[in-house]
């Protein structure tokens, strides 16, 4: 398994190309992983912790235990042969040593090829760990990956702007996380083209962003040089909106929606 997973991690890293971004349509369980992975053009998957938690009736923000998070990740990786990046929240640990242990477990027990790791302390985007502490947690994730023998792709999230903080601190954090072993910076709060350009200029590595209605269009993000775009819990929202529309149509004795016949099977 280690050799196969090593290859998946190397592939996942190689797919983060500035100007030709990896597009990951976030999934949350076995069937969504299977359906998305079988879609033409899809090269890798990513989970979204918000979705993984909510479909289990739990809140985001480490509402799952580390054991539950690893099981949830294993369900997803077991449904596809593609590399999977797991949203691992804050590492489900109070300290860096715990992050290292849990990341190693996530790799060895669930087959993660990549992770997202956050720098906020609680369930919201603020406050954040101080920069040395946050960087040490990124370094610990790298340590856990090395112990597992897998070049895990670490997508380190910077919550500063989303939490109301200052630009200079966000960039400082981004570069500190890269120095600590992150492969990509998941820079939240880049809501317009100027901010995307500025981040690309000032961060010493690849940039990952979240896409949503009203954000910079995908084609333009590619032109600017972004390396990855994900959608977080937005894809669960998309599925729920379609389900709600169908429920309204059926309840009103309307036509059967064409998608009611969508073929699926594990």
Spatial shape: globular
Q: Give the CATH H-level superfamily.
A: Phosphoenolpyruvate-binding domains
- Unreliable spans: none
Chain-averaged pLDDT = 96
Q: What is the helix fraction of residues, given as a range?
A: 40-55%
CATH topology: TIM Barrel
What's the Cα radius of gyration? 18 Å
Second-tier CATH architecture: Alpha-Beta Barrel
Please report the number of helical segments: 10
Distance between the termini: 22 Å
* Total domain modules: 1
| Element order: H for helix, E for strand | HEHEHHEHEHEHEHEHEH
3D architecture notes:
It is a single chain. Helix content is 45%, strand content 12%. The chain is of the alpha/beta class. It has one domain: Phosphoenolpyruvate-binding domains (TIM Barrel). Helix 5 packs parallel to helix 6. It is globular and about 60 Å long. The chain starts with a helix and ends in a 15-residue tail after the last helix.
Briefly, what is this?
Keywords: Lyase, Pyruvate. This is Isocitrate lyase/phosphoenolpyruvate mutase family protein. The chain is built from 10 helices and 8 strands.
Please name the defining characteristics of this protein.
266 residues, globular, eight-stranded parallel β-sheet, Pyrv/PenolPyrv_kinase-like_dom, TIM Barrel, 8 strands, single chain, lyase activity, alpha/beta
How is this fold's topology laid out?
Elements: H1 2-14, E1 22-24, H2 30-37, E2 45-46, H3 49-54, H4 66-77, E3 84-87, H5 96-110, E4 114-117, H6 131-148, E5 153-158, H7 167-180, E6 184-187, H8 193-202, E7 206-210, H9 218-224, E8 228-230, H10 234-251
Parallel strand pairs: 1-8, 2-3, 3-4, 4-5, 5-6, 6-7, 7-8
GO molecular function: lyase activity
Protein name: Isocitrate lyase/phosphoenolpyruvate mutase family protein
Organism: Cryobacterium zongtaii
């Amino acid at each position: 398994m280690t050799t196969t997973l090593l290859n998946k991690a190397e592939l996942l890293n190689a797919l983060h190309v500035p100007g030709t971004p990896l597009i990951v349509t976030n999934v949350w369980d076995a069937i969504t992983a299977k359906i998305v992975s079988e879609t033409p053009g899809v090269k890798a998957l990513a989970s979204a912790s918000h979705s993984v938690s909510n479909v289990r009736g739990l809140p985001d923000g480490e509402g799952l235990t580390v054991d539950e998070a690893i099981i949830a990740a294993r369900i997803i990786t077991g449904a596809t042969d593609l590399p999977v990046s797991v949203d691992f929240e804050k590492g489900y640990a109070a300290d860096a040593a715990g992050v290292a242990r849990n990341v190693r477990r996530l790799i060895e027990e669930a087959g993660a090829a990549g992770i997202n790791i956050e720098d906020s302390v609680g369930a919201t985007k603020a406050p954040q760990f101080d920069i040395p502490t946050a960087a040490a947690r990124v370094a610990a994730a790298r340590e856990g990956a090395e112990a597992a023998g897998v070049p895990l792709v670490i997508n380190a999230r910077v919550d500063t702007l989303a939490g109301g903080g200052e630009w200079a601190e966000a960039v400082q954090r981004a570069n500190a996380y890269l120095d600590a072993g992150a492969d990509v910076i998941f820079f939240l709060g880049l809501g317009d083209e100027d901010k995307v350009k500025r981040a690309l200029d000032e961060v010493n590595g690849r940039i990952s962003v979240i896409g949503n209605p009203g954000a910079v269009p995908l084609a333009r993000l590619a032109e600017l040089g972004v390396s990855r775009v994900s959608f977080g819990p937005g894809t669960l929202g998309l599925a729920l909106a379609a389900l709600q529309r169908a429920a309204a149509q059926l309840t009103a004795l309307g036509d059967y929606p064409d998608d009611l016949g969508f073929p699926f099977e594990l």
